[in-house]
Amino acid sequence: MWNLWHGCHKKSEGCQHCYVFRRDAEFEKNSNVVTKTSSFNLPIRRDRSGNWKVPSGTLMWTCFTSDFFIEEADQWREDAWLMIHRRSDLQFFMITKRPERILQCLPEDWGDGYENVTICCTMENQKRTNERLPIFRELPILHKAIICEPLLESINFQGNLGSWCEQVTVGGESGSEARVCDYAWVLGIREQCITANVPFHFKQTGAHFRKDGRLYNIPRNQQMQQAHRAAIDYNTNKKESPDNA
């Protein structure tokens, strides 16, 4: 995990019960204040022997307590890109709700994208899908993915999925105030992924999960397990069996 800055602003419906805000509130910390962290230079730190502290091949979950493209980080982002470019032996994975800012925030040598960077855009409902998908699809990024989490309603990608998207991940919402996730919505996205031959991953059920009209309240430590048991992930190299949950 590489949280090089911390703090964000709630931008859309999926942010309503953000885990960062919940956790910061426990320490009476204002999540709206964006600050550079002590981990900022983590990828280029070395040990006493001169070796990288983060070993080659590591997957770096990047900026998970903020948004890499948030406005307040404009002053630090150039240095962040330099580190990402320097550590081309690492894989960086970041999630954003701000695809409209990506193009203006890319480094000069970006070209069609860095091979070691995957950018994932969240689309939690139809409104945000309609808003973000057309922008995100056209951006010069080598590795793109979509995450529908927390999934708040049925989503129709309107035939716009394709080989440009490496995976769609779906998940319900966790926490004491979690909103309901319906299994029919999950299956609807899965079918669109199969039609477009795009990998699909059902990450977690969320705390309140509805299936065939019945509502299930699922403990946090079982939400990913229950999603896995559904066995509905779709790999383009091998079509999975139908739902057996």
Textual characterization of the structure:
The protein is of the alpha/beta class and 245 residues long. It is built from 6 helices and 11 strands. The chain has helices spanning 19-26, 74-86, 99-102, 126-138, 183-196, 223-230, and strands spanning 5-6, 35-36, 59-62, 91-96, 117-122, 143-148, 165-171, 181-182, 200-204, 208-211, 214-217. It has a 6-stranded parallel beta sheet. A 3-stranded mixed beta sheet has the order 8-10-11. A two-stranded antiparallel ribbon has the order 1-2. Strand 3, helix 2 and strand 4 form a beta-alpha-beta unit. The longest helix is centred in the C-terminal third of the chain and has 14 residues, at 183-196. It is globular. The two termini are 32 Å apart.
Write the SSE topology.
Layout: E1 5-6, H1 19-26, E2 35-36, E3 59-62, H2 74-86, E4 91-96, H3 99-102, E5 117-122, H4 126-138, E6 143-148, E7 165-171, E8 181-182, H5 183-196, E9 200-204, E10 208-211, E11 214-217, H6 223-230
Parallel strand pairs: 3-4, 4-5, 5-6, 6-7, 7-9, 8-10
Antiparallel strand pairs: 1-2, 10-11
